[in-house]
Amino acid sequence: MSAELKVASQVMSLYPEAQWLFDQLREGSVDTKRGGVTRDTYGSGEQFAHDLVAKYAAALGLEVRHDHMRNTYMVLPGLDRSAPALVIGSHLDSVAAGGNYDGAAGVVAGLIAIEALQEAGLQPQCDIVVMGVRAEESIWFQVSYIGSRGALGSLQESALQAKRIDTGRTLAEHLLAAGGDPDAVTQGQAYLTPQNVRAFMEVHIEQAPSLAIEGHAIAIGSGVPGNFRYPKIKITGEYGHVGLGRRYRHDAALAGADIALGLDKIWAEWEQAGRLMACTIGEFQTNAARHGLTIVPGEFGLSLDVRAYDTADLAELKTKFLELVAEVSATRRVKIDLGPQASAGVAPADPTITAQLRACALELGLTVPDLPSPASHDSAAFYAAGIPFGFLFIRNPNGSHHPDEEMSIDDFLLATTVLTQWLVTHCCKN
Ligand SMILES: [Zn+2]
Known about the structure:
Number of strands: 17
Bound molecules: zinc ion
CATH topology of the largest domain: Aminopeptidase
Shape: globular
Number of domains: 2
CATH class of the largest domain: Alpha Beta
CATH architecture of the largest domain: 3-Layer(aba) Sandwich
Helix content: 25-40%
């Protein structure tokens, strides 16, 4: 049997182990009230997942460590312990009532890949580290990449004062309760650096149905989009009586609608032209304390997330958005306060690693398409810190961030086989 086929069969034989890990993850974090799973960031659900994988890794004989963010590191020692390590990972938290695989698949993939290497009797050149990342889901603290940025020393100090939406406690308080060290964040301590990490490899389910529709089990992720975000846009017009004529109105809700439709029109034009972008208005509301059937809305709130894969595209979209805001403000005679702004840079996957992953897939008889990620991932934080990354997607027909998210173990093992093949070819040989 060729080395490639041997590794492939080694991974495939670990079907029961992978199934067991996903079952355990689901059982331990099932959300009986809302459905799906809830692995709350720096809460009991996330902690459960970290404890579970750490125990599994210890049973495999891996070294288990934590950093000041309480990220979990599970280490297969390499021949040269001082060489930069290869880190495989993703996040172990989920949104409330989320799916079992978003994030967790990347950690389980790392553990199964290592188990396959162990069974094949292969020792890597450098340490291979499986990282269970904390706090990737920004819904909890409204801050992106808390765990990975914290490990990389690039988490802004102000994030420590962000409050978790449900508990009202700060990130600093939650971090301390989990055994972490907020002072290390203040000092900008980096546990992972371009000097001690060679590359980051992330396996993740797709969050859109494109692979399922096109009939591909897996894809190679070509990059993570950059974004600009306005979490709290506030439009102020004037409350008025239902009898007020159109020309006298300062309708804040219609101004919000104009912004939403204006952005959607831009997106439709870009889509027509084959240009990649996305915009999402996740919050969109009048003031419930004052709105009513016969009242012209004087206040309106919305959030905005705009993303693209190219830095110039992102800049162009920002300009177009600001022009739209000025136009709506003038025509609707309302004040538009954009509020705080956040942004993240575009993060392309490393072209060398991407080519190597494609070659590994081909050796296994797989033609794997490239797929730009529609969503944000920890890989982008590594890229921003100067560490290259490779990315593999797994088919998921039902989207993510809700209980219907779906992934077959066969598809998962296919992605893990490509990853393991890459480890054998590029980490276990001279
Ligand atoms: Zn995720």
